């Protein structure tokens, strides 16, 4: 099991460029998440997905888009990169046997993508 | 008031010391509680879940106090390798995990 994998590890973008951050998990988890972590701050949820074909906004979704065509993959798209999107991005996954009851098991995180927008 | 609050530290302790961190949460309907460890420039990794009855894993003990809405982490016999940031995480149901900003621990030789 590779767990949660993310690519690339590091990227420099120019203002206005676009890119896709890749995330994959091989644990058959139904929930997947994208967070950003700024220095000295807690993780902020960007988008999440409860299963293939279902995504929803988190706390800080502006400037990002996601898709979930398969259980395994959850890419994050940045359109028109801005300096405010300079951050470390973590993808995570978890399993819920009873999603309608809101019970969650542990989240597992990928190694992160460091993004610098200049 | 923040949903999850932690003392940012840093806590500087000598090897072998016992150190404790607290974390308060504001949502009384919170259901699941976790302590994660995050090393510099790395991803958060689960240290332990926190159960209502309290739980222990080796040198680490976690407690939950629902009445006062806080969780705690006790580390006994601190090792140099325990130096990290400890994140308190509260789940309020479904997708919503709320992360504290973390408490930095530095164990000194």
Walk me through what this model shows.
The complex is a heterodimer of chains A (118) and B (109). Chain A has no helices and 11 strands. With 118 residues, chain A is mostly beta strands. In chain A, strands 2, 4, 5, 6, 9, 10 and 11 form a 7-stranded mixed beta sheet that branches. In chain B, strands 2, 4, 5, 9, 10 and 11 form a 6-stranded mixed beta sheet that branches. With 109 residues, chain B is an all-beta fold. In chain B, strand 9 and strand 10 form a beta hairpin. The relative contact order of chain B is 0.34. Chain B is 0% helix and 54% strand. The mean pLDDT of chain B is 92. At the A-B interface, strand 4, strand 5 and strand 10 of A face strand 5, strand 9 and strand 10 of B.
Give a short summary of the structure.
The complex is a heterodimer of chains A (118) and B (109). By secondary structure, chain A is mainly beta.
Keywords, please?
heterodimer, A: 118 residues, mainly beta, seven-stranded mixed beta sheet, four-stranded antiparallel beta sheet, 47% strand, B: 109 residues, six-stranded mixed beta sheet, five-stranded antiparallel beta sheet, 11 strands, 54% strand
Structural class of the helix and strand makeup of chain B? Answer: mainly beta
Q: Biggest sheet of chain B: strands, sense, closure?
A: 6 strands, mixed
So what's the oligomer here? heterodimer
Order of helices and strands of chain A: EEEEEEEEEEE
Helix count of chain A equals 0
As a whole number of angstroms, the C-alpha radius of gyration of chain B is 13 Å
Mean pLDDT of chain A: 92
Question: How many H/I helices of chain B?
Answer: 0
- Which percent range fits the helix content of chain B? under 10%
Low-confidence stretches of chain A: none
Give the DSSP E fraction of chain A (strand runs of 2 or more residues). over 45%
- Shape category of chain A: globular
Helix content of chain A: under 10%
Largest pleated sheet of chain A: 7 strands, mixed
Global structural class of chain A: mainly beta
Topology, number of strands of chain A: 11
C-alpha end-to-end distance of chain B: 37 Å
Rounded to the nearest angstrom, the radius of gyration of chain A is: 14 Å
Instruction: List the secondary-structure elements of chain B in sequence, H or E.
Output: EEEEEEEEEEE
Shape of chain B: globular
Q: Report the largest inter-chain contact.
A: A-B, 26 and 25 residues
């Amino acid at each position: 099991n590779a767990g949660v994998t993310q690519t690339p590890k590091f990227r420099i973008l120019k203002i206005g460029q676009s890119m896709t951050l890749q995330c994959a998990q091989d644990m058959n988890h139904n929930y997947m998440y994208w967070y950003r972590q700024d220095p000295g701050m807690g993780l902020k949820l960007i988008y999440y997905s409860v299963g293939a074909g279902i995504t929803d906004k988190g706390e800080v979704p502006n400037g990002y888009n996601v898709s979930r065509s398969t259980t395994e993959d959850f890419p994050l798209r940045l359109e028109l990169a801005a300096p405010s999107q300079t951050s470390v991005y973590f993808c995570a996954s978890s399993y819920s046997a009873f999603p309608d009851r809101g019970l969650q098991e542990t989240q597992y995180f990928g190694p992160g993508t460091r993004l610098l927008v200049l | 008031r923040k949903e999850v609050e932690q003392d940012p530290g840093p806590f500087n302790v000598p090897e072998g010391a016992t150190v404790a961190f607290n974390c308060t949460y504001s949502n009384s309907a919170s259901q699941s509680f976790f302590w994660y460890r995050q090393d510099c420039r790395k991803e958060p990794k689960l240290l332990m879940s926190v159960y209502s009855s309290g739980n222990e894993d080796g040198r680490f003990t976690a407690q939950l106090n629902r009445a006062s809405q806080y969780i705690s982490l006790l580390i006994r016999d601190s090792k140099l390798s325990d130096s990290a940031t400890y994140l308190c995480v509260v789940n309020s149901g479904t997708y919503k995990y709320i992360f504290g900003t973390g408490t930095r621990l530095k164990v000194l030789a």
